[in-house]
Design brief:
The structure is a single chain. The chain has one domain: MOB kinase activator (Butyryl-CoA Dehydrogenase, subunit A, domain 3, Up-down Bundle), CATH 1.20.140.30. It is globular and about 50 Å long. The protein is mainly α. α4 packs parallel to α6, α4 packs antiparallel against α7 and α6 packs antiparallel against α7.
Length: about 220
């Protein structure tokens, strides 16, 4: 399975942040198990991401946002030794795309950061959001806030930038680790999910539209 392969290829001790887990016995945990079972069954990824009949779209999105955070966290955590202040002084996706950080607290204006700094800020920020019960409620009967999907769009848009940076600046390292098939599968799963629910503006996807065939899916 993909999850098992990821564990074999990537060193989970290098996970960038502690993995967020779903509590057994909760609806979210059951949905997570359903999503994982579909992934392991070898079904077409386009089918895997579709909302199961009778399930809440917000629960389905929440489960995937947390799962993608964990997976991308693991991928970047293993890559991080190759992504340094020296090698990546700007958080970018090639010469054409530069990503600046803004979080309305410490960085109130879009600010140039190195890729490692950006990744640290990003993972801290996502971890804070997914652990916030007002945004990602875990108790039964507690509704999602009205802005929930907007928040998820922002999280997924920024997580997409991790793929952009890793593919464009560190793909040789992925190949050397023998991890390209697993990163590609994770990217395709992510891509089909965001397209299924229109969660990222198509302009954000442009940096990976022309990636070599086999890297992902444009």
């Amino acid at each position: 399975t993909m999850a098992l392969c990821l564990k074999q290829v990537f060193n989970k001790d290098k996970t960038f942040r502690p993995r967020k887990k779903f509590e057994p016995g909760t609806q979210r945990f059951e949905l997570y198990k359903k999503a994982q079972a579909s992934l392991k069954s070898g079904l077409d990824l386009k089918a895997v991401v579709q909302l199961p009949p009778g399930e809440s779209i917000n629960d389905w999105i929440a489960v995937h946002v947390v799962d993608f955070f964990n997976r991308i966290n693991l991928i970047y955590g293993t890559m991080s030794e190759y992504c340094t202040e020296r090698s990546c002084p700007i958080m970018s996706g090639g010469l054409k795309y530069e990503y600046r950080w803004q979080d309305d607290s410490k960085y109130k204006k879009p600010t140039k950061l190195s890729a490692p700094q950006y990744m640290c800020m990003l993972m801290d920020w996502i971890e804070m959001l997914i652990n916030n019960e007002d945004i990602f409620p875990t108790r039964i009967g507690v509704p999602f806030p009205k802005q929930f999907q907007q928040v998820c769009t922002k999280i997924l848009t920024r997580l997409f930038r991790v793929f952009v940076h890793v593919y464009i600046h560190h793909f040789d390292s992925i190949i050397n680790m023998g991890a390209e098939a697993h990163v590609n599968t994770c990217y395709k799963h992510f891509y089909y999910f965001i397209r299924e629910f229109s969660l990222i503006d198509h302009r954000e996807l442009e940096p990976l539209v022309r990636i070599p065939q086999g890297w992902g899916c444009a």
